[in-house]
Design a protein that fits this description.
The chain has about 850 residues and is mainly beta. It contains 7 helices and 52 strands. An 8-stranded parallel β-sheet has the order 12-19-18-17-16-15-14-13. The longest helix has 16 residues. The radius of gyration is 29 Å and the shape is globular. It starts with about 60 loop residues before the first strand and ends in a 6-residue tail after the last strand.
């Protein structure tokens, strides 16, 4: 036995040098035990994060910590680099250690030029020695990290002995200052009031192994929906995830997994402090991490009698021995009910609550005045796995806590639906699928209606409005005004907008851009007067779709948009009508300019209507069996109802309707299906094959899983077709569902992106395109002066790519390729973009 760790989500290591048998085969076994349960998460089992075998010289760098302290008045910074140097030999070793720091534009500091960044040190035998190297950044070298400007430096440390390089290590860091000033939280001296989401990092196709495309997709979806600050996860996140958060800009409180009634809530138990030590040691360099959290919802004195002593000692331990540069906090769900609460030791108050949000936060402030409050968790009840029924009144909840000086932000529980065993009460119980439907996206990351509600409420502005002179008719040239309405100083969120842009696009009825441009916006502060921007455009003579204006953040996210529809939606196409259960299911194909859909129906006319839906199907029940009904689908947008689909007739019967196909996702030599269920379902059958028109030749798989299953042993890169049916008892089978297609994507390159439009203004251009599933990055390519230039972009679900440094007098053509774990796709076709100037 080499050893064991009781910290499942923390990294740990063992030195196996002395156990190795030279010249022989050596076997290392790592086992995981997930019988332990904590909280409402799902224990997916197994080893969920990377395992590595590291081979080093006896003299090496164990860890680098960088503490960058800005002087906001002088706009300079002091940078302390602490190195842990290890000597595993039996003799003291004298080495030369050196540090180099680079910014995005090149070398900033080097031990070769700055003697403070180089030293000679003797490391005792079989021990670790800490050394500190300190340098100062000038004003020109200092660029502060901000959630809208997440600027990162790279530090590389080396150790040499006798002129020979023994080891080198590198990491990234940012320069920023976070502070609590009375009831305000300041970032780099700016008062900020910020919003975010709690994230349960798992899904139903990859568990919680967090492949790169999954965590990038999730973070991109959250940033697009206004996430700038969060108590993001109960569990310590791996380095690669925090690296991406550093790069995209979210302020995070990092937490140890201590929750509820627990014997570990004890100042004399060493395990929580070991967790804290590991957390700080591993995450110290991440500028996104602004605070350490010592526990969640452990504060009731009758459940954890030693909680006051534990929280006080844990916070004191972090500040005195681990990190004096960050906030140290505790998350309370009891601070509104007891005046003696461990939140009194917290640098600011993080509070969880799910009802009467304003009333309860007022009580917290009454009991514990003088500190800003961040709603670390807020919500109401579970929503629905059905995207159309996943509705949350975001405005009502936020209006209940807005305009309070002491409430500086909030973080919704949760961003995503997640797998769980938790049962609480009727409105909070986990469904038979095992999916806990708290999220504004489902377990497959499909946005519910709630997603746009929160994206609107979390927007950095209150709204965008249009006004136009002249009639909006085909071929008309119009002069319009776009007005930006800033937030008020005590709104949520509220912060200064700097480096934001407007992108406007005139699109046809298939979503393709016909005209467009981008405009730089001035600095906008909360409480400023509305900002008006002129816009000249032409209504398309035919196939007009919409005029869309988007607020683009400096990090490239479309955080707010407004659409002027230029015509009503085109007619949807009905795919099939399935009869059963004294009703029908109408399945149809979506249209680009449609916001909602309605099915109109009747026996002799179309006087009956379904509710509106964002889904591509509608179930209609309580019809007369054996009688013929007519059905039409119509799309709706702000101009009203569009053209109706063709009429389809069907006769309801008493057969069972098949499961609703909610989602499909490609996997390696497999694919996943997400589907609806009834509590009395007994069995599900999936028919699948490669010849769409020959279902009689397809294979069959039968499962009892509710909500999701995987179809294995398939050929990557080949398209498969499938359908489903269900059984409620032996021999009582439903109709078959409609047919869906999916292509297993293991070891496959991504698809080429589809460019929607390119908008050029002087030395910069924005490429609008459709994001590619499972992409982890993109490459923009263009020609300049006879040579090809490339711009790599780190991202997954970004929709706009910005290219800067262009020559204003030159015309350019652009193409985009997507990157995934297997390589780079074929590029899109070239799209030209002339310099249209500011309009």
């Amino acid at each position: 036995l080499l050893g064991e760790s009781h910290s499942g989500y923390f990294p740990f290591e063992f030195d196996i040098t002395k156990e190795m048998k030279s010249g022989q085969k050596n076997t290392i076994v790592v086992c995981a035990d997930n019988t332990f349960r904590r909280g409402a998460i799902w224990g997916w089992g197994g080893i969920r994060r990377p395992v590595s075998l590291l081979v080093n010289n006896p003299i090496r760098i164990e860890k680098i910590h960088v503490l960058a302290t800005p002087d906001l008045a002088k706009k300079t910074a002091k940078v302390d680099s602490k190195l842990w140097l290890r000597n595993d030999s039996d003799q003291p070793q004298t080495v030369k250690s050196s540090v180099t720091i680079q910014s995005k534009s090149g070398l900033v500091k080097s031990g070769a030029k700055d003697k403070n960044l180089m030293l000679s040190v003797t490391i005792p035998a079989n021990s670790t020695k800490e050394v500190l190297l300190t340098t100062n950044f000038s004003k020109s070298q200092t660029h502060l990290w901000h959630f809208d400007d997440p600027y990162l430096y790279t530090i590389e440390a080396t150790i040499h002995q006798g002129g020979t390089l023994q080891h080198k290590a590198a990491d990234r860091f940012g320069i920023r200052k976070i502070e609590v000033d009375g009831l305000q939280v300041k970032l780099n001296g700016e008062v900020v009031r910020l919003m975010g989401y709690n994230w349960v990092p798992d899904d139903r196709t990859t568990g919680n192994t967090l492949p790169t495309w999954r965590y990038k997709e999730d973070i991109d979806l959250m940033k697009r929906a206004g996430a700038n600050m969060a108590r993001l996860s109960h569990l310590p996140l791996p380095k690669e995830v925090l690296d991406y958060i550093d790069e995209k800009g979210i302020l995070v409180f990092s937490e140890i997994p201590l929750w509820g009634k627990d014997a570990l809530v004890d100042p004399d138990n060493p395990l929580p402090k070991q967790w804290l030590k590991t957390l700080v040691r591993e995450q110290f360099n991440h500028p996104s991490v602004i605070g350490w959290c010592v526990g969640n919802e452990i504060g009731y004195l009758h459940l954890n009698p030693k909680v006051m002593e534990y929280v006080e000692s844990a916070i004191r331990y972090v500040k005195s021995e681990l990190d004096q540069s960050r906030l140290v906090v505790y998350v309370s769900h009891s601070a509104n009910k007891q005046q003696r609460d461990p939140v009194q030791f917290s640098d600011m108050i993080l509070f969880n609550n799910y009802a009467e949000l304003g009333q309860h936060v007022d009580k917290v402030h009454q009991f514990h005045p003088g500190k800003p409050i961040f709603y670390a968790e807020y919500g109401h009840n579970l929503t629905s796995e059905n995207l159309n029924l996943g509705v949350v009144d975001a405005k009502k909840m936020l209006n209940d806590i807005r305009n309070r000086e002491y409430v500086m932000g909030a973080s919704l529980w949760t961003f995503n639906d997640y797998r769980s065993l938790w049962q609480a009460h009727a409105a909070w119980n986990t469904a038979p699928t095992g999916n806990r439907a708290w999220g504004m996206v489902d377990v497959f990351r499909q946005p519910k209606r709630a997603y746009e509600n929160f994206r609107r409420e979390y927007s950095p502005i209150k709204g965008l409005t249009f006004s136009s002179s002249g009639e909006v008719k085909p071929g008309a040239s119009l002069n319009s005004t776009v007005t930006i309405h800033p937030r008020t100083p005590l709104d949520l969120p509220a912060f200064t907008l700097q480096g934001y842009q407007l992108v406007w696009e005139v699109q046809d009825n298939q979503g393709k851009a016909l005209q467009g441009n981008l405009m730089d916006l001035p600095r906008i502060k909360p409480g400023d007067k509305p900002v008006s921007v002129p816009l000249s455009w032409t209504v398309p003579a035919q196939h007009a779709g919409s005029l869309k204006v988007t607020l683009l953040s400096p990090t490239g996210y479309d955080v707010h948009d407004t659409i002027m529809y230029l015509q009503k939606p085109a007619a949807p196409k009905i795919q099939t009508v399935i009869t059963g259960e004294s009703g029908v299911r109408v399945v149809f194909e979506p249209q680009p300019t449609t916001k909602y859909y309605v099915v109109k129906y009747g026996q002799n006319d179309f006087s009956l209507r379904s509710d509106t839906t964002i889904n591509a199907y509608v179930d209609i029940k309580k019809l007369d069996n054996g009688k013929k009904f007519q059905f039409q689908v119509v799309g709706l947008n702000a101009l009203g109802e569009g053209a109706t689909s063709e009429t389809v007739t069907a006769v309801p019967d008493t057969d069972l309707l098949p499961p609703v196909i909610l989602a499909t996702e490609a996997g390696d030599s497999s694919f996943f299906i997400g589907y609806g269920y009834e509590n009395f379902d007994y069995l599900y059958e999936i028919g699948y094959g490669t010849e769409k028109d020959k279902p009689e030749t397809w294979k069959s798989l039968k499962v009892t899983n509710k909500g999701v299953c995987r179809i294995p042993n398939l050929e990557n890169g080949k398209t498969y077709y499938f359908r489903m049916r269900r059984t409620v008892q032996q021999y009582v089978e439903s109709e078959w569902s409609e047919i869906h297609a999916v292509t297993p994507d293991g070891n496959q390159l991504p698809e080429a992106p589809k460019i929607k439009g390119i908008y050029r203004n002087g030395s910069q251009a924005v490429v609008a395109f459709e994001p590619v599933k499972k992409a982890v990055g993109y490459v923009v390519t263009y020609q300049e002066a006879g040579s090809e230039k490339t711009v790599p972009v780190n991202g997954s679900l970004t929709r706009y790519l910005t290219v800067k440094g262009l020559k204003p007098e030159q015309n350019y053509s652009f193409r985009v390729a997507a990157v995934n774990a297997n390589g780079t796709s074929k590029p899109s076709g070239d799209v030209a973009a002339a310099n249209t100037g500011q309009k």
